[in-house]
Structure prediction request, 237 residues.
Amino acid sequence: MKITLGANIIFVSNLATSKEWYEKNLGMKTLEYRPPEFLEMSLGENIFYIETENPKRAEGFKEVKIGGMCSAILHVEDIKATIDKLKNNGVKIVVEPVQQFWGGCNAKIADPDGNIFTLDQDDSMKKKHISFDDFKKIEVKAGKILSAEKIPDTDKLLKLSVDFAELTPRQIVSGISTYFPDPALLVGKTCMFVTNLEPRMIRGFESNGMLFAVSTADGAFSLLEPNPTIPAGTLAK
Prediction:
């Protein structure tokens, strides 16, 4: 059984006034206009039915009260800029932007009939995405592990010496000791590393890169190893 969202219904008192307001302030596009009772509009892929009182409606499908909280939440990229623009258009701001505990920011606005919409800026999504220009700054190379030693008095840390076809091998500290009780098993492996991170001190040892690996909550683990024919120093593209 497949269920999809058909439309959001908003009840208003004047179709012409609402049509102008939704086009101007929310950027909705008119798909069908049958005054004085029905207006179909789109916002991206979402459909809205803007309707007035219709005596032809069957019992049990009467209109809800005009002027209340709408279930539709409208996402915006910059909530402050959006609110400023709406204020200039004379839109009623019910609640100014408020930072929420999950990292997003919300505000509430009302249409001419008092129907209230929530505007949402999801900052958590911004944290999950980077621009392509940012991505291009990350340097990932294949490196051959020359030696691997457990760092004393630590539970997870290994000190690796890694060949990247540079003048001298790099020292990289990695928290993978749990998966390699015998560090010698790593020697000779070619793995993928981030190679342009700023050096940092970890338990008194300088680390000049980061090993790529994946793990799951149930203990599964894997290094990211390229085809054995890939030479050390090869740049990922």
About this structure: The two ends are 42 Å apart (CA to CA).
